[in-house]
Each structure stands twice: as structure tokens, then as C-alpha cells.
Amino acid sequence: MTIATALFNARYIGVRELREHLSNRLKGNNVIVVTDHGTPTKVILSYRDVVELIEVMDELRDQAAIQSVLEGRKAIRAGGGGIPVNRLFNQIRESRK
């Protein structure tokens, strides 16, 4: 499951409920959206998810990765097949070793 999907499916809990049941809510790797009077104000992510987000942001700064994505999009528009983004990132990681 992607982080975006996890966020979409996240449990919304109020600040008061979070405070009263903090230790139970922090168990596991579930994404939690904290609300204040029904308005989302904070998101609690697992350490693993935060590291994944940082890695993706770092990869998006890589001009070679951006160029590969743009070329892939052009190929798809032209009727050619594309490759999954995770395979693209794995190829880029391997080329850096």
C-alpha cells in the first residue's frame, strides 16, 4: 500500500481521543489523521513511511530520474509501453552504485 492510499484510508481521531489513548494509537504502522474540532490538523506516520517519503523527495531532485520519467511519459503518449515507477527508481539506484 502506498503512503497516499494509507493516508486516504487513515483513521481520523480527535485530539482528546489521541491524548487519552496515545500509547494504543501509536502501536502498529497505521496512518493517523488528528483532528481539532473535526478539522484535520496533523498526520502521524510511521518512521518507515517518513523515510520512504524522504527517499522519494531525494529521487525527485535527481535530474536523470526526472528525464527518465519525462521520456517514459512521451513514449506512453506515443503508444509505447511504460515501466512502473518503482522499477525506474530501482534502475536509477542500481546505476548509482
Tell me what the structure shows.
By secondary structure, the protein is an alpha+beta fold. The protein folds into two domains: 3-46, YefM-like fold (3-Layer(aba) Sandwich), CATH 3.40.1620; 62-96, no CATH class. The chain has six helices and three strands. It has a three-stranded mixed beta sheet. It is elongated, with a radius of gyration of 18 Å.
CATH class value of the largest domain: Alpha Beta
Radius of gyration: 18 Å
The largest sheet has its strands arranged as 1-2-3
- Count of spatially separate domains: 2
Q: What is the CATH architecture assignment of the largest domain? A: 3-Layer(aba) Sandwich
What's a quick, concise take on this entry?
The protein is α+β, with helices and mostly antiparallel strands.
